[in-house]
Design a protein that fits this description.
protease, alpha+beta, C40 family peptidase, endopeptidase fold (from Nostoc punctiforme), cysteine-type peptidase activity
């Protein structure tokens, strides 16, 4: 499992390819509709990370919540997409689960960061999770190199 820390890089220990891709984006500012390293919104961030591995995601968080397989919160693994209702109008935010109870996302107030899934803000707004990576993609991109 991935371990996030907040000193230096976002990931400690042996990192996966996905960890490296996310780590390179930590601190990039939030930009509504943003899909590039000059600024990301939440779904632009997830799409950009997955695109680094040749995996295309739909553009919006609501659309991303319809792909792959539904995953129970207790069964999350690195690379799963996690979805939240931050607007009061259904799914409006998405991030990438990185393990150890944490997820990476583009926060409208802080840009690309790693947050605690069980923080009071996100635990109250959690809706669902989807597994967009196949088993082979998970093994290749989301598990630490051996």
């Amino acid at each position: 499992m991935l371990l996030a820390s907040f000193a230096g890089t976002a990931f400690a220990g042996t990192a996966s390819q996905m960890d490296g891709a996310i780590d390179d984006l930590i601190g990039i500012r939030y930009k509504y509709g943003g899909t590039t390293t000059s600024g990301f919104d939440c779904s632009g961030f997830t799409s950009y990370v997955f695109d680094q591995f040749g995996i295309e995601l739909p553009r919006t968080s609501g659309s991303q919540a319809t792909i792959g397989d539904k995953v129970a919160k207790s069964d999350l693994r690195a690379g799963d997409l996690v979805f939240f209702n931050t607007s009061g109008k259904g799914i409006s935010h998405v991030g990438i689960y990185v393990g150890d109870g944490k997820f990476a996302h583009s926060s409208s107030s802080k840009g690309v960061i790693v947050s605690e899934l069980e923080s009071s803000y996100y635990s109250e707004r959690y809706v669902t999770a989807r597994r967009a990576l196949s088993e082979a993609q998970y093994q290749k991109y989301a598990t630490p190199a051996k």
